[in-house]
Amino acid sequence: MDLSLTDDQVAILDAIDTLTRPYAGASLHEAGFALPDAQLDRELAEGGFLDIGFDPDLGAVSAALVVERLARLPQTVEAAASALIRPLLGDDLPRPLCMVEEGRTTRPIRFLREGGTVLIVGRSGVSTFTATAEQVRPEPEALFGYPMATLLAVPADRISHAVSVEDILTRWRIALAAEAAGLLAAALDSTVAHVTDRQQFGRPLATFQALRHRLAEAQVRANGVRWLALKAAATLDPGDAALAALHAQESARATVYDFHQFFGAMGVTLEHPLHLWTYRLKALISDLGGRGGQGLAAAEALWK
Amino acid sequence: MDFAWTDQETAFRARLRALLADTLPDDWERFSQHGPASPALTRYAETFCGTLAEQGLLIPHWPVALGGQGLDPWHQTILAEEMWIAGEPRGGQYMNVNWIGPTLIRYGSPDQQARYLPPIGEGKALWCQGFSEPGSGSDLASLRTRAERDGDFYHVTGQKIWTSYAGLADTCFLVCRTSDDRKRGISILLVPMDTPGITVRQIPSLIGEGDIHEVFFDDVTVPVTARLGDEGQAWEIIGYSLTNERLGIPRYALARAALDRAVAVLKEQGGFDSEAVRIEAAHAAALTEAARMASYAIVDRRAKGEAIGAESSSARFATVMAERRVCEFIVEYLPEALADAHPYLKMHHQRGIVAGIAAGAAEIQLNIIATDVLKLPREPR
Q: pTM value?
């Protein structure tokens, strides 16, 4: 076992940090619920950062590291599915890649827009189509940290992919966990900075044990989600992936309200960017049947 | 990043499993409920550790010059996992090989090393650690057991409590006060337990017979040559010991093994068809595996000779979360395990209760994470 980043991985993450530095420092005052950024998306795609999973020498672990790092940005970019799931399908599918479960097609879908690729996975297999304007209803008022839209119709004419449903679901779970790991880390960092600065009763909020212990538990969870995501990316094992996604969704559930709580009234304004991470976590909680869905998948994989 | 075991590590684990299968008695699972500190298990551990020593598996991570094979922390972790999963047939001796021996190697005088290291390497020593006192648990530096210097001797008076293995131990790693300076006034004495003036009283416990004691020191005379390191050096020495034992027992491994066993039993009974049960089992497994990976991240640092850092407290707390969830799962869905139907699960449950208490309370781990990992400003004192 060697749990250090390889030289290649260090170089990739450094390059991402360099590319995203102007974005990380952008003014976030009164961002909406979500902060999509077309220019950032374009720069990442052109830089090849979303294609790393296609390179067998770099593989899914490197792709997961990219997803985790990008999720820490306040801006939201469709990276998780592109980096981790697209390598099973081919690089000719137009981005964004929007993941949809068969039987749950009426739910709001992350990044769905005209021209994007919709992937439907379920009992009848794995298929994709390019969304048209008529099939998409944007949901600008949705309470999520992603641009969301509803799919109004699923065309019968779709491209069928000769890839196993289980492989797609495994990578979906890894993508979810890797993204959640970055979101949890960023939300935690943001909360730590706030409680360190904010003074009440003549001392920083961070000096009150009632907050310290809950933030420390959040660190334990964020750390665990990151390691489970990376391990699952390395093994591509369905059980590892289901445990990682389960831990991600459970940890999102356990921490999101605390993070807002510790901001007090500031945590319910759009002035502070905390929601740009936490309201993405909220969206991830419902993927693939939520914790129950992940739990059943993990039990099936671990104990048949 | 590479998450796979090397061939050598895989072979090492297989060798340990084969040895356990060949060596442990047929009724071992029932027998192991006696608890790691019980007279029965302590006697058995002498035989078992002798076998390990013969096979070069008692102290494989010690330096070659001291009878070990210089194996890396990954091998030490595999050894610890396999022994703990098996119910710890080394009894209290696991402590000797993990941190008492390495601490003596670092700080012991030549005489102390010649006296204490060979019996540890042969599997014939049993130590107890005189740390906690009635008024000093998590706040160890407030300890009051006093060692008064009188020429070439100390006179030790005071009381230790919740001391594991004290009833049968031959030597005590005693932390005591030699001056009033809170941390620099603490020293370590290596005290034979048959020294006149020491009285041991067992405290009945939830974790098995013989595990917890009070130890009274009534004007116990200890030669100055029994002091480990310098006077006032205890805080530094304990810090070093903790780098060898900071991760503590790999409880995540037994928790996962117990969970797997409980699931196997439930499946036989048809109780694993329930979705609620399956989901709860998965939650418990997610926590054991999160704790395992958090721990491996620390082992990886040790193996590379890097500082372990405060993240080890994060791994410790993750382990507490995992242990607790597995115990709760079994209580809820397989209560007969706490009677006598499944000795292995009962053994796990007995020991699980101390996960957040022994070797540093879980709340102390959270304090360390808050201050040293998250870098939050300290609480006022």
A: 0.96
Domain count, chain A: 1
Could you tell me the pLDDT band of residue A213, with boundaries at 50, 70 and 90?
A: very high
As a whole number of angstroms, the distance between CA B175 and CA B191 comes to 10
CATH number of the structural domain B129-232: 2.40.110.10
B321 at interface of A, judged by CB pairs closer than 8 A:
yes
Q: How far apart are CA B79 and CA B42, in angstroms?
A: 19
Closest Cβ opposite residue A216 in set B6, B297, B366: B366
Q: Does domain B246-373 have CATH number 1.20.140.10?
A: yes
Higher pLDDT, B246 or A201: A201
**Containing structural domain, residue A270:** 165-303
- For residue A214, the domain's CATH number is 1.20.140.10
User: What DSSP letter does each residue of A57-95 carry, written as one string?
Assistant: TTHHHHHHHHHHHHHTSSSB---HHHHHTGGGT-TTSPS
Q: Considering only residues 186 to 225 of chain A, which have any Cβ-Cβ distance to chain B shorter than 8 Å?
A: 188, 192, 195-196, 203-204, 206-209, 212-213, 215-217, 219-221, 223-225
CB atoms within 10 A of CB B159: 18
What sign for the dihedral angle of Cα A213, A214, A219, A224? positive
Each of the 381 residues of chain B gets a pLDDT tens digit; together they read 999 999 999 999 999 999 999 999 999 999 988 888 888 899 999 999 999 999 999 999 999 999 999 999 999 999 999 999 999 999 999 999 999 999 999 999 999 999 999 999 999 999 999 999 999 998 999 999 999 999 999 999 999 999 999 999 999 999 999 999 999 999 999 999 999 999 999 999 888 877 899 999 999 999 999 999 999 999 999 988 887 666 779 999 999 999 999 999 999 999 999 999 999 999 999 999 999 999 999 999 999 998 888 899 999 999 999 999 999 999 999 999 999 899 999 999 999 999 999 888 999 999 999 999 999 999 988
Q: What is the second-level CATH architecture of the domain B7-125?
A: Orthogonal Bundle (1.10)
Query: 3-state class of B87 per DSSP?
Result: coil
Tell me how far the alpha carbon of residue A163 is from its chain's centroid.
23
Which chain A residues touch B275 with a CB distance below 8 Å? 292, 296
Min Cα distance B8 → chain A (Å) is 11
Tokens of A1: 């076992």
Chain A residues 146-175 within an 8 A CB cutoff of chain B: none
Contacts of B290 in chain A (CB under 8 A): 221, 224-225, 227-228, 247
Q: Which helix (H) or strand (E) holds B161?
A: strand B153-161
Other C-beta atoms lying within 10 Å of the C-beta of residue A136: 21
Backbone angles phi, psi at A208, to 5 degrees: -90, 125
CA B313 to chain centre: 15
Which one of B275, B311, B366 has the shortest CB-CB distance to A213?
Answer: B366
Q: What is the pLDDT of residues B248-264, one digit of tens each?
A: 799 999 999 999 999 99
Q: Is residue A200 part of a domain?
A: yes
Those of residues 92-111 in B touching chain A at CB distance below 8 A are: none
For the packed helices A209-235 and A59-71, what is the interaxial angle rounded to 10 degrees? 150
Domain contains A121:
no
